[in-house]
Fold these 3 entries.
Entry 1:
Amino acid sequence: MLFNPMYWIFLGPALLLGIWAQIKVKSAYAQMSRVPARSGVTGAQAAARLLRDAGCTDVGIEVSHGWLSDHYDPRHKVLRLSREVYAGRSIAAVGIAAHEAGHAIQDARRYAPLVVRNAIVPVAGLGSNLAIVLIVLGVILAITQLAWVGVILFASVVAFQLVNLPVEFDASRRARDELVRTGVVSVQEDAAVAKVLNAAALTYVAATLTAILQLIYFISLVSGRRD
C-alpha cells in the first residue's frame, strides 16, 4: 500500500500538518525553555502544587528517560516528567508539567472522555498493531472479509484519537487555569504557556487527521475489491 500513489494523495495533507506541528513544538519549546518562570519553581514543584490544591495526594512524581517523554500513568498514579521538565524552571517546563498534572486531575474527577479513552486503549493498541497486517493480507490473498476485520480494528484507532482530542485540550485548559490561580505563572506569562501547549495540541490534531484519512483510504481500498 505504501507504493500506491493514492495512499500518499490521501495522507499527504495530514503528514505535512504533522511535520509542521513537530516543527512548531520544537520551536515553541526551545524558545520558552529559555524563559524563566517568575515564580522560580521547577516543573516538578509546579505539578506538585497543582495536584495538592486539587486534592490528588496519592499521585507520585518521577523522572522519566527521554526528551519530552512526559506522561501521566493512570495505572500507577504517577506523573513521569522528563529530566528537563522535572528540574527545569522555565515557562516550558512548568507548562508541560502542569498539563500532565491536568491528566491526573481528570483521572481523579473521572472526566468522562478520559474514562472512555482509557477503556478504548486495549482495543486501539490491538488495532494499531494488527489492523494493517490483516488489511494487507486480505488484499493480497483476495479475502475481503479478512481485510474488513482489519478495517474495523483500525476504526478503534480512529475512535481513540477522536476521544483523545478533548482529553488533551481539557488538560491544557486546566493547566493554564491552575497555573495562574495558584500563582505559579502570572496572567502576563499565560500567553507564553499557551504558546507551548497550543503547539503540542497541533500534534494531536495531526495524528487524528492522519488516522481518519488512513481509515477512509482503507475503506475505499477494500470496498473496491471482490473475492
Entry 2:
Amino acid sequence: MAKENINSKQGFTIIEVVLVLAIAGLIFLMVFVALPALQRSQRDTQRRNDMSRVDTSLVQYQTNHSNQSSNLPDVSAASVWQAPSNGTFGTGCGNNVACQFIRDYMNSGSSDNDGKANNFEDPNGVPYSLVITPNWSNGADADNAHNGNSQLTTGETIDGTQTYTIRDYDNGNAFDSYTIYIVPGARCIGDAAAPSTKRHFAILYRLEGAGTYCIDDQ
C-alpha cells in the first residue's frame, strides 16, 4: 500500500483565518449592539405592564369611591410623592394623596409608619414616585395643572386639541426621575395626554428607550 504523502496535508491559509476572525468579530459586534437594545425593550415592556397595573388600580379606586363626583383622587394642587431613597414609606403618608395611592393600591400591606419596603419598583430596581395632578375637567384646568411640580408641559396640537407631555428635564433625561403621572380628567392621544371629562384619566410614564408611554381608561 502506498505511503501517505504527509506533505499533501495543508493547514488553514491566512485568508481563511482572517475570514473566520472577521465573521466572529461581526457576530460579536451584532450581539454587543443588539443585546442592550433587547434588554431596554424588555424593561420597557415591564414598565408598560406596571402602568397597566396603575390603570386597573385606578378603576378599583373609582369603585371604592363611588360617592365622589369624579371617583378619582381629588387634589387642588399637584400631589407629589417622591419615593424615599431607602425604598420605605418612613415617616408615613399623612394627607399626601399620591403616597396614599401607592400605599393602598400599588403596595398593599404597608401602613403609614411601619417603614415597610415599597415593592412597586421600576425594572431598574428604583421605587416609582408618583404625581397626581388636579382634575382636568376642561382645557383651562389642564393648562393650569401642567405647571409646577407636575412636570408636565404643553405638547403638540393634534386635530385642534392641545396635548400635554412629560417635561424633558433632569439634564435632558426625564426617564431618570422614575415618576408616574396620573392625570384625572384626561385621555391619551398617542403618547400625550389631552383634556377629557372629569371621570376619565390618563397615566404618563417616560420609557427608557421609546419616549413617553400614555395609557387611559377609554
Entry 3:
Amino acid sequence: MRCSMDCFPCLLQQGIRTARQHLENEEEQRKLVKRIIAEMAAADDDASAPYIAHKIQRALIEVLGVTDPFAKEKHYYNREMLKLEDDFVRMVESADNPLKAALKLASAGNIIDFGPGHDLSSEKVLETISITMKRELPEDVFNKLNAALREADKLLYLGDNAGEIVFDKVFIRTIKAVYPHLQVYFATRGKPIVNDVTEDDAYAVKMENYAAIINNGSDIPGTILKLCPDSFVKIFNEADVIISKGQGNFESLSGTTNHKNLFYLFLCKCSHFMETFGAAQNEMVLIQNKT
C-alpha cells in the first residue's frame, strides 16, 4: 500500500519525538531529524509507510549505537499485560461467544503502539479494552473467518507490538480451544524495530504454549513479502488462514497478495484510516483481503 500524503507529517513527527526522547543534545537531534527528512525524500514513490518508518528507525539505531532503543518500554508492557492475562482469559471464557470476545480483546491490544501519537498509559489500555468489548464487530467478516478456521489445517498469525502480544496469546489460546486440530504459527519481526514484537518478546510471554514461533526475517514494522526469506514466504503461502494484526501489516500487505483467507485486524488510529474505513478513532477494523 503506497504511503499516503497524510502519513508523511506523522512519520516526521515520530522522528522528531524519537530524537528528543533519545538524544539530549539539540544539535544531535537536529542532525537526526535532517537525516530522517532525507530518508523520506529518497524513498521510492510506491514505498509503504512501514518501509519508510524502518529507514527512520535504522537511522536512529545507527546514531545511538544500540540495536533495540525501545527494549525497556517493550519489557514494561509485556510485563504489565502479563499481570492481566488471567483476567483476560476469564473475561473471554465467560462470554457467550468466547471466540468473538477474544477477537475483540485482541483488537483492543492494538492500542499499544509507539507510532501514532504515543500518548499511552495503562489506564488508556484498560479504557480501550472496556470500550472495544462493548462494540459490535462486522458479523459477515467474523463468520467468514470462523468458517475458514473451521476448515483450516494451518493458521499463520502475524504479530504486531509488544504488550499487545499478550492479547494475541489469549486470542490464539481461544482459537486452539475451539479448533484444537489447527497448527498455528506466530510470526514476529526478524530484528528489533520500534516496539514491534521479536522472538524474544514471544518467548517472554510464553507464546510457544499455543503456537510455533517464527520470524519474518525483516526489521520493517510490517510484512513486505519480497523482503522476507523464502522460508517465511513458504509458510505464508501454505497457510490456510492468515490473521494479520496492526496497521503496519495491513499497509505493507494490502494489494501485494491474493491470499483469499487473509484477515486484517487492527484499531483505526489515524485520520487517514478513519476516512478510509469510515471509522472513529481507535475503532476496530476487521476486513478480509481483496483478491
